[in-house]
Amino acid sequence: MNISSIQEQILKLKNEKDVCILAHSYQAHEIIEIADYTGDSYKLSVDASKAENKNILMCGVRFMAETCKILSPEKTVYLAQPVAGCSMADQMDKQLISQVKKMYPDYTVVAYINTTAELKTICDVCVTSSSAVKIVNNLDNKNILFIPDCNLGDYVAKQCPDKNIKLLNGGCPIHACVNVDDVKKAKELHPNALVLVHPECTPEVVAMADYVGSTSGIMNYAKESDAKEFIIGTEISIAEHLQYECPDKNFYGLTLKLICPNMKSTTLVDVYNCLNGNGGEEIKLDDQTITDARKCIDEMIRLG
Ligand code: 13P
Ligand code: SF4
Q: What tens digit of pLDDT does each residue of 111-136 get?
């Protein structure tokens, strides 16, 4: 079978089995092509909750499938590739943060959406990279414990100088390994390009950027900008997708270090196998976890 015949089979199976396919923007182009919805992690879970299909298939990482299940408990949610975790979400668990909370009893716990469903059950509010600044500013409490990403937390702290933000030592190992020399080299190669980076990059890299934002923020900025060349400082697939969408502009990956093995572990064949009942994993969360984690997400929707 070639790529287009697998894609045809997938579209046929998905209609027969009433499945809505979600693909995060970090997925490969051939998966984006067969998805019903694409975008950032939060947008996908909202799209899924509004879709009429009984079944959801997430091409992304585990916390994204869990967020879908929390927002649509009545639906059957599958993760296309069961090994696709998120190195950041896996860094902090409920046990660890319960201990840390005892040290900071007067702090509001703000959890990046890249956290497990279980950890969300003991946090006060979720944020995404696009909503973090607004939500932290809208919180009544001055004292914030921001988990798990210290780079995103540092970025938020700089935008919210009135808040007292405590950070822990977590983050995305992929974005965190971009360094100042990588940015200098990319700018030397493409002197007319604007540098767009995700706030999961280090503060030194963020300081060199022309624009800082979420995956959707970067894509929208590049599409709407009058500029013609862009250095993309987030997972390498974003530069590729933008190149397909904007053929009159040029997009360069900041560095080849920006390849997320978790996101890239899902293949078109995994999607096919999952629809066929020969792969994937159904996401199962108990009712209490769904109820408690949902409070954290509802608070994000209220404050965002
Ligand atoms: P978004 O929430 O912007 O989709 O980002 C998810 C992610 O994993 C970034 O590395
Ligand atoms: Fe997780 Fe980083 Fe991969 Fe995003 S890029 S899914 S934060 S490991």
A: 999 999 999 999 999 999 989 999 99
Distance CA 274, CA 19 (A): 11
Q: Is the ipTM above a cut-off of 0.95?
A: yes
- State whether the beta carbon of 237 lies less than 6 angstroms from ligand 2: no
Is the beta carbon of 238 within 6 A of some atom in ligand 2? no
Minimum-distance ligand to the CA of 259?
Answer: 2
Q: What is the pLDDT of residues 267-289, one digit of tens each?
A: 999 999 999 999 999 999 999 99
Ligand 1 touching residue 172 (CB < 6 A): yes
**What does the alpha-carbon distance between residue 187 and residue 184 come to, in Å, rounded to a whole number?**
5
Evaluate: CB of 172 within 6 angstroms of ligand 2. Answer: yes
- Domains of the chain with CATH codes: 3-85+263-285 (3.40.50.10800), 89-172+290-303 (3.40.50.10800), 178-253 (3.40.50.10800)
Query: Among all ligands shown, which has an atom nearest to the Cα of 25?
Result: 1
- Cα separation of 300 and 298, whole Å? 5
Alpha-carbon distances, residue 72 vs 6, 48, 195, 271 (angstroms):
28, 8, 37, 21
CA angle 66, 68, 70 (to 5 degrees): 70
Written as six digits, the tokens of 293 are 């984690």
List, for residues 15-59, the tens digit of each pLDDT value: 999 999 999 999 999 999 999 999 987 788 788 889 999 999 999
